[in-house]
Design a protein that fits this description.
The structure holds 2 protein chains of 2 kinds. Helix content of chain A is about 75%, strand content about 0%. Chain A is mostly helical. Chain A has a two-stranded antiparallel sheet with strand order 1-2. The model of chain B has no long low-confidence stretch (mean pLDDT about 85). Chain B has a single domain, classed as Orthogonal Bundle (Helix Hairpins), CATH 1.10.287.3510. The termini of chain B are far apart. In chain B, helix 2 runs antiparallel to helix 3 and helix 3 runs antiparallel to helix 4. Classes of the chains: A mainly alpha, B mainly alpha. At the A-B interface, helix 5 and helix 6 of A face helix 2, helix 3, helix 4 and helix 5 of B.
Chain lengths: ~500, ~120
Amino acid sequence: MTLTAQLPALQVVLPMLTAPLVAFLRLPQLSWLATTVASATAFGIAVLLTQAVLGTGTLDYAMGGWPAPYGIALAIDEFGALLLLIVTGASTIALLAGKASLDQQIESARQPLFYAGWLLALAGLSGIVMTGDAFNIFVFMEISSLAAYMLVAGGPDRRALTAVFKYLIMGTVGATFYLIGIGLVYMMTGTLNLADMEARIAEVADLKPILVAAGFITIGLALKAAVFPLHAWLPNAYTFAPHAVTVFLAACSTKVSLYVLLRFDFFVFQGNLERHDVQFAGFLLPLALLAILVGSLAAVFERNLKRLLAYSSIAQIGYILLGASCVSLLGLTAGIVHMFNHALAKGALFLAVACIGVRLSRLWVDDLAGLARQMPWTLAAFVAGGLSLIGIPGTAGFISKWYLISAALEQGLTGVLTIVVIVVSSLLAVVYIWRIVEVAYFGSRDAQSPPVSEAPLSLLLPTWFIVIANVYFGLVPALPVDLASAAARSLLGHLL
Amino acid sequence: MQLLGLYNYWVFVVLLMIGFYAVIAKSNLIKKLIGLSIFQAAVFLLYISMDKVEGGTAPIIQAGVPDQIYSNPLPQVLILTAIVVGISTMALGLAIVVRIKEAYGTIEEHEAAAMDSEA
């Protein structure tokens, strides 16, 4: 066995083992460095795994050498590889950029513990993506959630605490629902391995418990993924978290839950439950449309910059679900590509917010008045991220909107309604991004307020790196689109 | 009679609902956490119930002892993990309540919310 063969295990083990080491490092600088190196190495592993998946197809790895239905198997397919890239990439960029911002927001004595929590969140999220075992998903989900609660609670405002309490309650209820669902499936099939589960459900005569389990699992994961109307925890948790944490979590945490949701609904239940595709679409399509409209509308009227972007995230989760609930190759490709593209666009926006946050203590839209003259590069990055969020051609956001609308066109009459919603919501996105641009570029700064300088280079460079990635993947979308369409093909396996 | 015979599952459902009610309806953060704890404990009962095999004994294989009917050990192992997860969640939740008390001087959700809307 060479080291390459062990890469799937290392992806989780590396951040998980670095976490206690970082916690024992008493020096904040060193702990940041160790965390960033571990995260960057994890990203490197994710890139290697993606190459391997693109070359040879799904990678299977038996943990501890125990073969699949008995031991815990890791399985990485195209979908997983794409998510791994998002998770590890978001973590690395947020850490590289977030140093200055985190130094301001987290006391230096607590930083080593904070970074340890960060690594645990990273390990948990990567673990969810890779594992092929239903109960293992629960364990990793709770590792990442508990770590995420801790990271969010690190925010300087006391409202971070009430926000995180709500997040904890709703997250735990979601995870427990998921656990009930797994229990019911286990009762009927006697297995926890996802692939084995899929095969054995076919042998179960009475499908009612499986149907109930599908309900529990879908609702539980929808809570974790902040699917409308179960999104109540998200806006405040994103708003009051430290800026770098918002970058990390907004880019990947809800998407990982959506990934599990899609894997369950398509892999495990789709082929076995009668008319599951219709029920799935009928249940999630209206929610997706409502999420898009309500999220965008709330963002238009929101005055707090971070909460505005958080509401926009709820709308974007709606887009991902919308694609998935078309239950077609194009639709799923659109949803999955949008996971990647939204991570890029929202990553750029929240990074720009972190840049502003280093210089301003209050982040209401009105506080940005005239800021474009003092922080031209930051605001330019914000505008670029905003354009990608809206879906202007030439940016990553355009690619996912294009696929979404193509998918909707296949749907006939409901498709027309879908397209109307997409267009309206894109216009709303123009409105809420424009509000900020107007204030920042055409407003004038209070004469009394102290002068503001441009954000430090250590923050600006990663921000612009992501902005350029937005443009790059808007012009050359081959990598995410290839991965997403392969993922969609394997998800739809039973229906094609 | 079959419905009564499944009383474990009835207790599971009732406990689940009691816990869920407390989580939703109570404003006191500690009571919410108690509710969450009951909610999770209900699921432990579900798992423990499903592993019981009629007439089954503890799954310990010993030389010289004839083979018996064994209860399924796997759900017990699973739920041991879930209990650990539950304890960690509870510890973190209580720690957050302590900090909320320090920051707001109250552990009533609506009072804390009212203090923030004034500020």
